[in-house]
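B., you asked whether I could sanity-check this one before it goes into the benchmark set. Here's the sequence:
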Amino acid sequence: MDESEIRTRLTMLRTEHRDLDAAIEALRGAGAPDQLQIARLKKRKLKMRDEIQLLEDQLIPDIIA
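And here's what the prediction gave me:
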């Protein structure tokens, strides 16, 4: 993956991550929130965050100190 592909993927993941945040908040605001669905969304959000971090690490060169 070259740098432009990584940046494109990062943008897409960050947008989806924010969308999941909004979905989780909407479910919490519902009269009787579905805890299982919220847990699934949170798990998906964490996986996304890990992928975002991995891609960000690819963009930042290693600095040997």
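One thing to flag: The two ends are 27 Å apart (CA to CA). Otherwise nothing jumped out at me.
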